Amino acid sequence: MWAFPLVLLLLFLLAVASGVSGTSNGIWREALYGQQGSHVIAGEPRSIRTDEWLVQGSWLISEKAQGFKPDNTVFPGGADATVMNDTPTWDWSTAFRPHLWGSLFLDLDRGEAWRWWLPAGALLASVYAFVVSILPRRPLLAVALAFIALFQPYVQWTYMPVLTLAIIFAFVTMTASVWCLRANDLRPRVIAALVTCYLATAMAMSIYVPFMLDALYVAAPFVAGLALQAWRRDGMPGRDVVRRLLPLAAAGAVSGLIMVVWVLTRRNTVRAVFDTVYPGHRVERPGTLGLDYLVSLFGAPFEHSLQKGISTGLGGNQSGGSSAYLISVFLLVPLVWFAGRLWRQRRCMDWPVVALVAVHIFLFALMFIPGWDFLAALLLVGRSNPTGVKIAFVMLGAVAVVLLVERQRDMNMGAPWKIAFGTGFAALVAGALVWTRLSQVGSPAVPSHIAMVLIVAFAVGLAAWARGFTLTGAFLSLACTLAVGLGVNPLYHDMFDPAHDTQAGRQMLRLHAAHPNARWVGVGVGWAAQATVFEGGVPGYSGVQTYPSKTMWQQIDPSGAYKPAWNRLAHIEWLAGTGGPAPRNPQIDVVEMTFDSCAAFAQHYVTYVLNAGGALQQSCLEEVGSYREGNVPEQIYRVIPGPDGGGR
Q1: 392/399 Cα distance (integer angstroms)
Q2: Residue-wise over 214-243: b if at least 16 C-beta within 10 A, else e?
């Protein structure tokens, strides 16, 4: 049982020592030099993964430049670095973020490797522990299900610690409920509860509510179904069920108390985050998704095309078009058959299966059935993200397989051939319908021999699972998953830091050392100049803001006329032009502004400008230096007084 976790630990240590991770940070080298270089060992960096390489990557490097202070002082007024963006800081709350510890003690490459592989290893270990806790004689099945969960396309395309923490929390909570209800010794129940408490706190500190809710939508019904089974089917007295689950309940209470302290010690930051237009005030209504999303949901066999940049018919981009193999949806067929058999034989309800069916009904209602807004509000559905519930199906897949194999073991039989064939046939029909729809919209994802093979292999694997050929089903499903999920993220070493690895960036740092109070603005199309300023840790007005700094926006927009545009989590982008900043939103998470060196804002607050692109032709700028970084010309300017001695 311990061999697999020990192998994972060894592989993790080797990856950290080598400094190899899966970051798409190599996009910087492509953008500047037009080539990946030897830093990409395998695969290719993905520009769509901006939340990883640009948002969280910028915060990580910026914090390293500032010595991992809890208060990042790039933006005027500062910003609390301990809330969102998964940033390492010297703060007590980092004790609950083990994936960040490496960045505090190791160099940039090895810190990123720690940050990348620890969540991956923990996800694999959590799925493995869940499976062997219920099926202790099925370690190979546990290993296969663990890798199936990790390499689902949705997990790979949206891979970040906030996502993996939700998955890990769900599996650890479900495992803890098994230990609490089935272990006679108090010690394993307490250990399971302590681990759950720690992970619940770690997940909650991400404050990314949608992923938390998705994890709870899976874990809570499973725990309830297991408790009802122990009480109603296995004959455990109700008070004993409650007593055995008390350590798990206590874990939730303690985690809640820790979070109360955490929120109170940074209540202004949390209030500012939740008071933003995006994502704070974003509320989703149930049942808003349509046919195209349904196609995307069942589209996993076609998602090898996403690695070629083809997402037509599946979603607006690779991340949005990615999904997961819906193993649990199809395995409901044999599971319901086994539940019916149990009812006929013993007049006993199979409560875990009932809970699984209920979760699926709820999730599909959340996505496709409108008109229950009031109930949805009570269940916090408005804070969920209907397009992101695909993560729930990643977790449900392993749950469905475990429940099915457990029933096959208890009844010493597989489902009848007609049930097995029906399960596989349902998957074939779903694949054919997706194929038809993609053809109708002219998607280049079809025709595809790869998709055809994957549809058939997935269907055969489901039929094998239903019939009781467990390892056949597991390895066919694993092969299908790896065919579309392996290779999404590259293997990469030597992270690119634009502030230290470019000529303009190094000159910026020299000027900052000479004039530490000077404030900078990064100007130009793309993110090169903005990221260089922010990642260099110099005071300025460019980068990624988690929430708006009152001081900064009082300087940019003293009247508050543009507050709806800047009151959000966003990239702060400046383009050369004439007039005041005039914040606007070309995208929901971008604040674009005009930089005019002769305007009042620049004259009063800006000292230096780092520009990426063609030279700026503005009368209130004096060139300090001109550089060329690969294909991109960069310049540094000093802001000088305008003709009238001040800003217009």
Answers
A1: 11
A2: bbbbbbbbbbbbbbbbbbeeeebeeeebee
Q: How confident is the model at residue 646 (pLDDT cuts 50, 70, 90)?
A: low
CA torsion, ordered 343, 344, 346, 347, to nearest 10 deg: 50
d(CA 371, CA 369): 7
The DSSP string of 408-421 is HHHHT-PPPHHHHH
Q: Which residues of 162-199 are buried (b: 16+ CB within 10 A; e: fewer)?
A: bbbbbbbbbbbbbbbbbbbbeeeeeebbeebbebbbbb
pLDDT at 286: 81
**Of the ranges 79-88, 159-168, 563-572, 583-592, which one carries the lowest mean pLDDT score?**
79-88
Number of C-alpha atoms within 13 angstroms, CB side, residue 570?
Answer: 27
Q: Is the distance from CB of 184 to CB of 357 less than 8 angstroms?
A: no
* Total count of residues recorded for the chain: 648
Q: Which residues pair with 627 in a beta bridge?
A: 634
Which structure tokens are listed for 522?
Answer: 């990064």
E strand spans, 542-612: 543-545, 570-576, 584-587, 590-595, 608-612
pLDDT greater than 80 at residue 384: no
Judge contact between 251 and 369, C-beta under 8 A: no
Residues 6+ apart with CB under 8 A from 179: 133, 188, 189, 191, 192
Pairing of strands 520-523, 608-612: parallel
**Tokens encoding 92:** 């007590």
By three-state DSSP, how is residue 491 classified?
strand
Give the confidence band of 382 by pLDDT, cuts at 50, 70, 90: low
| Phi, psi (rounded to 5 degrees) for 327 | -55, -45
From residue 647, give the alpha-carbon distance in Å to each of 83, 188, 296, 642.
Answer: 36, 69, 52, 7
When mean pLDDT is compared across 36-45, 331-340, 357-366, the lowest value belongs to 36-45
pLDDT at 648 over 70: no
Residue 645 predicted with pLDDT over 90: no
> What does the alpha-carbon distance between residue 417 and residue 467 come to, in Å, rounded to a whole number?
7
Q: How far is C-alpha 97 from the geometric centre of its chain's CA atoms?
A: 15
Which residue's entry shows tokens 């219920």? 134
CA–chain centroid gap for 140, Å, is: 27
Phi and psi at 139, nearest 5°, equal -65, -35
> In Å, what is the CA distance from 491 to each residue of 20, 32, 48, 308, 481?
6, 20, 16, 17, 19
Q: Which residues pair with 589 in a beta bridge?
A: none
Q: Which residue has the tokens 């769509």?
A: 48
How far apart are the C-alpha atoms of 139 and 470, rounded to whole Å?
A: 12
Contact 348, 233 (CB under 8 A): yes
